[in-house]
Amino acid sequence: MATSGDATQQSNGLQHPSSKSQTSEKSQTAQEYIASQLALEADAREALPYQFDTCTKPLGPLRQSVFACLTCTPPPASNYQQFTPAGVCYSCSISCHGEHNLMELFTKRDFVCDCGTTRLSNSGTPCTLRINASTGRKGDVRGEAARPGNKYNQNYEGKFCGCGEEYDPEKEKGTMFQCLGLGHVEDGGCGEDWWHPECLMGQPRSKLEQRQVKEEAPVSGTLDTVKEESEDVTATNGTSEQTHGDYDEAPLPQGFPGEDDFDHLICYKCANAYPWIKQYAGTPGFLPALSAETQIAQANSSLRSPPTAPVIPVKEELESAKRKAEDELENGQDSKRVKADESTNAIAAPETNGHTNGTDAPRHASLPQAPTDSVSIFLKEDFRDQLCKCPECFPRLSQHKQLLEEEEPYEPPVSESGQHENGSAAGRSVNSGSLLERGEAALSSMDRVRAIEGVMAYNHVKDKVKAFLQPFAESGQMVSAEDIKEYFAKLRGDEQAQKEAATGAANDGVNGDHRKEQGGY
User: Fold this and answer.
1) How far apart are CA 190 and CA 192, in angstroms?
2) Where does the record place Low complexity bias (predicted)?
């Protein structure tokens, strides 16, 4: 019969391999660590492909990607609270506000970066990319005058669309469309806001889920294979929320034009601010107007009607200027889309004759009467060619350059990947590539004497570390973080560090495992 001491030894003997195995799973070799870091840096370069070492403020007004920093300018708790909106450029969003809560607004027209200006004075966050006029050095730029010409809307508070909802990429379903932005908020327009399709049609957001459930519900007489998965989910869970969660994107409302049917959109706010644009609805280059009032009546009638077999609606000739942009940084991809500009057309001069179809009448004379209700306008790819540019119409068109030419958004220079064809450090700079490649590049550009001294010091440390690790390799024992800390503390002659390492090892020994996560070397 085994004694209690033997039993204890047997117990410890059984537990040790398990503990060792668990620690092995958490451990990784140097090569594995380097590979994981390279993978992370590759993901970062894919998500943030442009250089972020230069602020765009010195370049003046640009159509550029803008970010709202909700940490520096938190949204007001009520409408009565004073709020000073601000936006920062792509580079400042990373270099100056990288650890803040940012809201990507995508491209905004005629905007100058607010980082380091009076609009962010209360935040205490300086611009680290511009030259400080008082010191002559880069960084610590504060309190510069902000550009008075910048225009802001509710997007800078994290709110979007006519419904004013706060945008949550984790919960938002479907596609949002950016208005071409004829008018600013001061003019009664939206200021290039983003819109839900149902809000453009006058449907409340609360009807979205009802519409999805109705469209996904099984209907008698249809093929069994149609939406089989959604039927199973509905039958099993019995809730619209879980059914809704199985789809990355919500379907477009019935009557809303397909995403491929239009290139740009002018919302009803901007159309009401500049009602002359309504005359073009339904003419060549434009789809028929989408009336919110009409759609409300149709939606209510649709909800009251009994369920019938699904009918494929005839595609209405409705189109719009959508700006579709991918947010695949994410991770759960941002559902606001921006369509990349494909071509740039020169601003056309006013037509001297202004006639069409061989007549002397200007083009606008043949346009239908503008709708009197609130409508959204959807524009096809060739809409600019269809606008009347006679001497009477051109002056008002020239106030909206986006109607005369395709806008080219500013993009910072693409960041160098640092990858060379043969994988060597050749062609790399100290400021490009991965951290490992930067180290190799720094070593290759170092003074020869210092480089030799560095290699000799490295070999000296390598020999000592090899001697330290040899007993562990022979016995098969795992090397713990505390072992490493204690060893390097001895190399430095740091008595206090040795005591701390010993204390940490003693505390960990209570649970029979002397290993914990390494943090600092």
Assistant:
1) 6
2) 18-29
By 3-state DSSP, what share of the chain in percent is helix, strand and coil, each rounded to 5?
40, 10, 50
Compute the average pLDDT of residues 82-106. Answer: 95
Specify the amino acid at residue 402.
Q
**CB-CB contact of 265 with 320 (8 Å):** yes
Point out which residues pair with 338 in neighbouring strands.
Answer: 324
Per-residue tokens: 486: 């204690």
At 404, is the secondary structure helix, strand, or coil?
coil
Single out the residue of 66, 53, 23, 63 nearest to residue 401, CA to CA: 63
- Comparing CA positions, the residue from 271, 388, 355, 372 lying closest to residue 320 is 271
Dist. CA 378–CA 318, nearest whole Å: 6
Distance, in Å, from the CA atom of 260 to the CA atom of 246, rounded to the nearest integer, reads 24
Is residue 178 within 8 Å of residue 190, measured between CB atoms? no
Residue 78: predicted pLDDT: 86
What pLDDT, in 10s, does the model give residues 360-393? 788 888 899 889 899 999 999 999 999 999 999 9
Averaged over 217-235, what is the pLDDT? Answer: 40
CA–CA dist 126, 95 (Å, integer)? 10
Question: Which of residues 35 and 521 earns the better pLDDT score?
Answer: 35
Per the structure block, which two tokens stand in for 31?
Answer: 């090569």
Distance CA 128, CA 407 (A): 29
Q: What is the Cα–Cα distance from 95 to 116, expressed in whole angstroms?
A: 12
Going by DSSP bridges, is the β-strand pair 375-379/159-160 parallel, antiparallel, or unpaired?
unpaired
- Average pLDDT rounded to a whole number, residues 78-99: 93
Instruction: Assess whether pLDDT exceeds 80 at residue 339.
Output: no
Task: Classify 476 in phi/psi space as left (phi over 0), alpha (psi -120 to 50) or beta.
Answer: left
Question: What letter represents residue 217's amino acid?
Answer: A
DSSP assignment of 226-270:
TTHHHHHHHHHH--HHHHHHT-SSPPPPTTSPPGGG-SEEE-HHH
- Tell me 105's DSSP state: E
Helix axes 30-47, 435-444, angle to 10 degrees: 100
Nearest to 174 by CA among 209, 203, 213, 217: 209
* Residues 6 or more apart whose Cβ sits within 8 Å of residue 341: 406, 407, 408, 409
In DSSP terms, which residues pair with 233 in a beta bridge? Answer: none
d(CA 516, CA 481): 6
Mean pLDDT estimate for the chain: 74
How many angstroms separate the CA atoms of 195 and 25, rounded?
48
C-alpha 285/C-alpha 271 separation (Å) is 16
Triad 452, 456, 462: Cα angle to 5°: 140
Tell me the DSSP string of 128-177. SSSBPTTT-SBS-B-SBPPPTT----GGGGTEETTTTEEP-TTT--S-BE
Domain range annotation of the chain: 57-152, 158-206+248-304+312-354+362-411, 449-511
